[in-house]
Specification:
Radius of gyration: 13 Å
Structural class: alpha+beta
Number of helices: 3
Helix content: 10-25%
Distance between the termini: 7 Å
Largest sheet: 4 strands, antiparallel
Strand order of the largest sheet: 1-8-3-6
Number of strands: 8
Length: about 100
């Protein structure tokens, strides 16, 4: 059994960085500690961002748990920093 603190990896993303796009395989769970990111979608080749999430949120946990592809586009709005856990380690934490 592994502990969460053993598998956390620090991350830092600059503004306007695409984290995941629609139908991407989600290979990591991202814990945003600082910064803001936008969530949106694409219709007719036009990208719309409708929701801005603050710090202290998680991206990709549902997709990693249930082996799903991303349904939305995630993009940083400001500098974002936090931690990530790779999908294989995330599954090892579940057991």
């Amino acid at each position: 059994m592994i502990a969460l603190l053993q598998v956390l990896e620090p991350i830092h993303m600059k503004p306007n960085t695409i984290i995941f796009t629609e139908l991407d395989d989600v290979n990591e769970v991202i814990f945003i500690e600082e910064g803001f990111y936008d969530v949106g979608y694409e219709v007719n080749k036009k990208v719309q961002f409708k929701v801005r999430h603050p710090q202290k949120t998680v991206i990709g946990a549902f997709e990693a748990c249930f082996n799903r592809r991303s349904l939305f586009i995630y993009k940083t709005h400001k500098d974002c920093s936090g931690f990530s856990v790779r999908k294989r380690n995330w599954h090892a934490l579940e057991t």
